[in-house]
Amino acid sequence: MRKKRFSMIGVLLVIIAILFIYPLDSYISQPGGAYDLDPLVEVVGGDNNDIGTFSLMTISVSKATPASYVLSKFTDKKKLLPAENVRRDGENDKEYNIRQKKLMTGSQFNAITVAFEKAGIPVDIQYDGVFVMMVLEGGAADGILELGDKIRVIDGVELKESGQFFTLIGDKKLGDEVKISLDRDDKKLDVTLVLKEIPDSDGRAGLGVRFEEDRTLTTDPEVDFKTSNIGGPSAGLMFTLEIMNQLLDEDLTKGYNIAGTGEMLEDGTVGRIGGADFKVIAASRQDVEIFFAPADDLPDEVRAANPGILTNYEEAVKMAEKIGTKMKIVPVETVDDALDYLATLEKK
Domains of the chain by range and CATH? Predict the structure, then answer.
């Protein structure tokens, strides 16, 4: 009898483990949190005597299990995401995290340059090699270079100018050798590759990588970020506003608790992001009073091809109405839209 009972308990534990632990080939997203940017962003010597707050928003993304998969069908606060909507084809955990961190540093870079430009303070930008964003299967770099590698030198030429990498590789032919010096995980490596046809190209020779030019930024005053545990580009707008708030003597918040989302592009445009609806839920839980949402442009052909698709602003408004929050949802296409709105606010 006792053995039978233990057997039943064992079976039950296995079933529970399958339901709540076994990972499926999909993801579950849900509301994350709101994080006051004042302790996360420091403009050295900047103005910190502000009453209100600017906050960045996060969403939580985790592997789906059978239990969370089923639960997502019965709640608006969990969303099932196909694996291809989260990770690139063949991308492992390490590569995904590297890409998210790179997107975060790019977001911070643009936030600084836009904020300083709006404040009338010059910055010094230097090109500093290229960052490998993807290695194409079957290309010359496959099995040699890795996502996250920082290429600094090509055939003895240090990469210090925009377009240099493309020019140096573009001048070569199939079968040519290329000597590369790079940084990987704080180590310096030298490798030699033989150029092949770029996969899915028109016969062009190349390394078979997708890359992004890396840049270093020097500012006075310096800007320091303490966001090592956060990835992705969606905090760009709020970074920009927080940096400006510390650069300027005035309190841009006017005493309000303000949050928002949106990638900051180089020209000050606020780019579309994912999870705007869940960020509204998280912001409302934290008593945020004003929420900036990207009013991204969706051409008619995009709407026709994706019935039901909404702009980030439309998503945010829809969720705000559903949960009955009193939080004000403000559409922004550029950082200037956010600044103009703040300028019209009465002090709290």
Answer: 30-81+92-123+219-344 (3.30.230), 125-217 (2.30.42.10)
Pairing mode of beta strands 263-264, 257-260: unpaired
Do the beta carbons of residue 124 and residue 217 sit within 8 Å? yes
Catalytic positions, please?
234, 279
The owner of tokens 């534990």 is 13
ω before 221 within 30° of 0 (cis)?
Answer: yes
Half-sphere exposure of 8 (CA within 13 A, CB side): 5
**DSSP at 269:** B
Taking each helix axis from N to C end, the angle separating 335-344 and 93-119, rounded to the nearest 10 degrees, works out to 50
CA-to-CA separations, 286 to 34, 56, 238, 334, in angstroms, rounded: 7, 12, 16, 25
pLDDT at 312 over 60: yes
Q: Assign 344 to helix, strand or coil.
A: helix
Q: Percent helix, strand, coil in the chain (nearest 5)?
A: 30, 30, 40
**Confidence bin at 305 (pLDDT 50/70/90):** confident
3-state secondary structure of 230: coil
Q: What are the pLDDT digits (tens) for 5-42? A: 656 766 676 677 666 788 888 899 999 999 999 999 99
Q: Which amino acid is at 108?
A: Q
The CA distance from 151 to 212, in Å, is 10
First to last CA, the chain: 71
Contact 67, 253 (CB under 8 A): no
Dist CA 169 CA 198 (whole Å): 12
Rounded CA-CA distance 62/73 in Å is 16
Map residue 225 onto helix, strand or coil: strand
263, two tokens: 């990638």
| pTM of the shown model | 0.87
